[in-house]
Every structure is written in structure tokens, then in C-alpha cells.
Amino acid sequence: MGRADDVDRFYRLLGDLSDRVGGPRRLKDCTGFMDWPDRGVYLFLEPGETHADTALNRVTRVGTHAVSTGSGTTLWDRLKQHYGTGDGSSAHPHGGNHRGSVYRLRVGEALVQRHALHAEYPSWGTRWRGLERERSAVRDEEYPLERRVSTYLRDQPFLWVDVDDEPGPDSDRAFLERNVIALLSNVGDGLVDARARDWLGHHSPSHEIRASGLWNVDHVKASYDPAFLDRFEAAVAETDPL
């Protein structure tokens, strides 16, 4: 079996996962009061883009959390970083912090590129250490773009699998994340699921994102281990609805 066959199997498993949990969710409809598993792998999907001739939305970002030994970050903790701030934030409602979420960072970069917003957001992606102005002033300036990022991300459907193992770089979650990205990436191994012309990621300044078709940079040039599909299938079977 080749990569195309493995991609087909992966999406069949993704369809099984969707059936098990009652379909994808959107961050705009989620809260921390839902019965999220403590640990897992999440997969964001692109509305309007599907795998081959199926009805399954194309995976556009793969992520996990707590891959450092001793980390206590939960799955919802990570999803909340992508979600950003709620309407209860007095200073920046429905904004966020792209310095705490690489996904937000990458989407913001692409929005800046697509709409030629470099002059308005010169500090986007700059680490705090390199900023000469007060953080509060920078956050105020970046707030309109943070809101646009939130609007984009909160409407992306996503699925998740429950993988409750101990934090660490050798965890099953890290193994699954790495191999799903490597399998789906279109960097250097033939084109599978060509991305729509209007996909925002085409405007990313990152070659890895543009070439892979994913909002990921790490692992997009790696080889995958086909055996990970068996572990992913097991994770699907262990995942319960919220």
C-alpha cells in the first residue's frame, strides 16, 4: 500500500470518529464545561474542502498538548488558547494572544499577507523581548487583527481523539501528531487533496505551510510510519461523545 491508500484509510477512520462523537464541533460553540478528555489530539478541518470524492472535510491543522515531561496542560487548555478571549474580556473581547497559540500566529500572518496589512501590524509575531513599547499598547494595536483571527478559527470545524497517556515527547499523542502531519503533508511526496485556490494558507509567508497544505510547520517534511494508523484506529475506538 502507498501513501494514497494510507490517506484514504486515515479519512475512513476520521469518518468513523465523526460518527462516534456526533460530528465535528466549532470553537464558537464550545466551552470548558463540556466533557473534554484530559488529553488528546485535535484535527481542524477546512470548510468547503473535502478529501477526494468523499464528503469528509480536509484536515488543515493537527495538534496536541502536554508533550513536555511533567506538563499539566489539558486538551481544552490548548483549544482555549486557539479560541482566544470571550465576551467577558473587558479590554479585548473576542480577541486572543497569538504569542500563546502558534495556530493564531500563522493565521494572522496569512491575513496580513493577503490584505497587505504589514504597516498596521509591524509587531505581529515579534516576541515580547524584542518589543520596545509597553505590552498593553502593542496588544491594543494588534486587537483588530486578533479579532479577525478569532472569527476565522472559531468557525473551523474540528475533531479530536482521546489519548490519555503521560506527558512527554515519546507519548502516543506526540507519535500520532507527528505521523498524521507527515502523512497528510504534500511536501515532496506527490499531491494529495489539492488545496482550493482561495485557501488562506496560500498567503502564508511560511513555505512549509504553503507547500504542505497544512497550518503546520513541524514534521511536514518527515516520513510517516504506516503503523500509526493502527494506533489511530484504537484511539478512535476509545473516544466517547462529549
Question: How would you characterize the overall build of this protein?
Answer:
This protein has 242 residues and is an alpha+beta fold. It has helices at residues 3-21, 75-83, 102-115, 135-154, 172-184, 207-212, 228-238, and strands spanning 25-26, 40-50, 57-63, 157-162. The protein has two domains: 3-81 and 156-238, no CATH class; 88-153, no CATH class. It is built from seven helices and four strands, in the order αβββαααβααα. Strands 1-4-2-3 form a four-stranded antiparallel sheet. A hairpin with a 6-residue loop joins β2 (40-50) and β3 (57-63). The radius of gyration is 18 Å and the shape is globular.
pLDDT < 50 stretches: none
Structural class by SSE content: alpha+beta
Average pLDDT taken over every residue? 93
Helix content: 25-40%
Number of continuous helical runs = 7
What is the succession of H and E elements? HEEEHHHEHHH
Rounded radius of gyration (Å): 18 Å
What's the assembly state of these chains? Answer: single chain
Q: How do the strands line up in the largest sheet?
A: 1-4-2-3
